[in-house]
Amino acid sequence: MSKYQYVPEPALVKGDHDFASLTRLVTDINLRPTPKAWYLCMIGANALLMVMVVAIGYLIWEGTGIWGLNNPIGWGWAIINFVWWVGIGHAGTLISAILFLFRQDWRTAINRFAEAMTIFAVMCAGVFPAIHVGRIWAIYWVFPIPNQMAMWPNFNSPLLWDVFAVSTYFTVSFLFWYVGLVPDLATIRDRATDKIRKVAYGIFALGWTGSNRHWWNYEKAYMILAGLATPLVLSVHTIVSFDFAVSMIPGWHTTIFPPYFVAGAIFSGFAMVLTLMIVARKIYGMKDIMTDDHMEKMNIVILVTGSMVGFAYMMEFFIAWYSGVEYEKAIFMLRATGPYAWAYWAMMTCNVLSPQVFWFKKVRTSVGATFAISIVVNIGMWFERFVITVTSLANDYLPSSWDYYSPTIWDVLTYVGTFGLFFTMFLLFLRFLPMVALAEIKAVIPQADPHNYDEETGEFHKPKVEVPKPQSEKV
Amino acid sequence: MSTKEQNLYGILAEFKNPKELIDVAKTMSKSGFSKFDTFSPFPIHGMDKAMKLKKSKLGWIVFAHAIIGFTGAVSMMYYMSVVDYPMNISGKPFFNAPAWVPITFELTVLLSSFGAVFGMFYLNGLPKLNNPLFNVERFKKATDDGFFACIEAEDDKFEADEVKKLFQEAGASHIEEVYE
Description:
Chain A is an all-alpha fold. Chain A contains 16 helices and no strands.
């Protein structure tokens, strides 16, 4: 074997697919009768959703006293879960916007899926800040609308920035998702045979024809949206981290928080996409589109962001020591050895150590291992938020006010219940909307490129891969 | 629908693949037609040049919205925190510019996105309740695997037979008249 080996880019769509077979593969799911298994899953998801509704109902009736909050620890599971869910919600826009700007065509297989996940994760996240205020009937005070006190929100507060950041993020993600959906909804509209589907999909397809004059504006809009969503997605978790970093609590008041939070968000979001993708592609027979190559690429992102998070953990320790601030040093020692050491080491194991196995190609191309690690990563990221939120509050400046925090059953039920909300939405998405961005995936198969057709006969030929010759033998 | 007094909307031709569609788009724009269009299930690379499409105006719409978002955010916060109900918060100035950056940024992005999405639909004339092309059963393939070209009857140079000939020579697999 020669010294030089050309590694061609793997085909984005496996198998012998043309445009029509891709259409069938993706939209048949929406057009065929609902499978029984879907109803079973839906019953399960709805039961969990009811758990959430009951937990929130009791919270509103009784007040936040039903949670495990105590005097120093005023932020518990509600904030942990908010940050966790909103972090997961970062993968979708990252995949659809940032990878789009970097011309990573492999994103087309998973972007719809990941964007849907983003929207539902942000919905779950949004539940917590709304209910944790206690007096939920006064929640409109966070918006700049006139109220009986004639007062306006405090624009200097990161908590208010968060209101704007998360609601903007949700709205823009939703619009981005919908713009991507329009051509695919038109595909279903044109394939539907029954009246209800024709009308329903027809309304949401807005009369899309596939006109290239329209595509021209459409692609421009898509690019601008990607350009807007990229700084937006980075800003959202930055602002979430400001909720902590702008305060004066030891362990929170650090400048590393924004990049560290964003890396963690991408880390957990990719893990969640993988968890869902591995299950969905098996059930729906999507292995030709969501290939093992996709899985491997995402595992590499997990490895990179996981290492960034690990670096941030170490840097926090270093800066705590280097700053020479007693309280800062103390809190980090307490994190690793104090009352919550179990959570700290769970976080370290899940987030820093576990993704390191992806250095091995064998592991990052293995479906089972990827599935397991993707779940471990999200457990680890939950513990990260637990460690950040709880340890700093539990052990701050004055040892006499220290206390230990444990959740109550209502904390747990609310959190578990949000999975009900998430899976209910996700099942509806899988059933009624095309789970792959069909127009985009068609555009990346070789048949879509006019250059792959013979000038004379007009027949399709596979693109010839020209293997570049090494310039000289000596390098 | 009446059958005799139908209005001719245009002539629609189907092509086999993106390459043929690009070629016919070149022919149509070279022959001096202006009210023509091509339809494909996905955007075809190079079609803008083949059809001689002008640069999209969307960027300007988005820019205008961005300015509205930016000035709107700053003036909202200025009115609320400086004019209407100034509050002393930890001795910070009422016009606390650095702290206003996040919300200004978010609202600029929000308004720009509205501009991008709704501006795109506006430029495309969507939503549109009906389109004469939807009368053609075959046109349903345009969102699946069909590649279509259409020259509208309203075009100054439109001549039904000439248009059909043009499509035939371009290798159309199917040509038909579209009525409103």
